[in-house]
Specification:
With 288 residues, this protein is of the alpha+beta class. 42% of the residues lie in helices and 11% in strands. The protein has a 7-stranded mixed sheet. Helix 4 packs antiparallel against helix 5. The two termini are 27 Å apart. The relative contact order is 0.15. About 2% of the residues have low confidence.
């Protein structure tokens, strides 16, 4: 069962009940299907626009660029910049240790074709010898076009309540005491709830972008950026993380947690299906 198979069913001309039956036949449980219909809008491939930044080192850049070209993906090397482009770009990153450190920045990904191109880029990186280490991270930006301020604030609140469970989903180097994705120690949910606009949230975090959820990206890019995931060029890991964040944002449109969640298995079903929980539980065991 793949995301492509699921999307194919959701976008088909089948009636809703027929879609449910088809999803169960390809391996989803009834609970998963119910959650899926709550989270996905069948007419859209991606609920929110997404941008991804992959930090890595050691890749043969000429080979990487050539492989991208062969797969039909435009890849351009540029000097360091924060401009959003219509194509994938390679920029330098001085925060990464290792030979030939780079950051691969995607354009805005707003449909399944964009996600397919991301998969091609990951394959090209791996074939070109890209590597990751403790100094690398994966950053995901979600566009705010369809996200209200209350949803935006709820994302921060829910992430804080989920922080201990999320910590188990990522590498130890991204859990605490990382200056590039700081945790929320010293910050209170009650104070955050009192914020009435984006600027107040940004001020509450001291105008510092280096948090697990970046409060400054709204001002710079009109996005909410998640910085916690460790560096990876593995498309399955990236896709799983992006799906989790998508569900978290969607759930935050109508829901807000009232207590801390410490275990992956206790994350609400609306944010993570049983199958996805098992994936991250297995990842947590591998990262322990």
């Amino acid at each position: 069962m793949t995301t492509r198979q699921i999307n194919k069913v959701l976008k088909s001309n089948l009636k809703k009940e027929e879609k449910k039956d088809a999803l169960i036949q390809i391996g989803l449980t009834e609970e998963d299907v119910t959650t899926l219909f709550e989270l996905y809008e069948a007419e859209n491939d991606v609920l929110y626009t997404i941008g991804v930044e992959i930090e890595c080192y050691g890749a043969d850049k000429a080979r990487f660029t050539e492989l991208c070209k062969e797969s039909g993906v435009e890849m351009t090397e540029e000097s360091y910049n924060h401009e959003t482009k219509s194509y994938f770009k390679i920029v330098s990153d001085s925060s990464i240790t290792g030979s030939d450190p780079i950051e691969v920045v995607s354009p805005v990904l707003c449909n399944s074709a964009g996600i397919d191109n991301l998969e091609k880029v990951c394959k090209a990186l791996n074939d070109a010898g890209a590597r990751v280490n403790r100094s690398t991270g994966l950053h995901a930006h979600f566009g705010l076009q369809n996200i209200s301020f209350n949803t935006y604030k709820n994302v921060f609140v829910n992430y804080m309540y989920l922080e201990q469970a999320i910590n188990k989903m990522v590498a130890p180097s991204r859990r605490a005491f990382n200056s590039y994705c700081k945790g929320f120690e010293g910050k209170t949910i009650e104070k955050l709830k009192e914020c009435t606009d984006h600027e107040e949230i940004q001020n509450y975090f001291g105008n510092d972008r280096y948090y697990k959820v970046n409060p400054i990206s709204y001002r710079r890019h009109n996005t909410v950026e998640f910085r916690q995931h460790q560096g990876t060029t593995n498309f399955v890991k990236i896709r799983s993380w992006l799906l989790f964040l998508t569900y978290l944002i969607k759930w935050s449109e109508k829901h807000i947690l009232t207590d801390y969640v410490n275990e992956i298995n206790d994350i609400p079903a609306g944010i993570m299906t049983k199958k996805e929980k098992q994936y991250f539980i297995n990842r947590a065991a591998a990262l322990a």
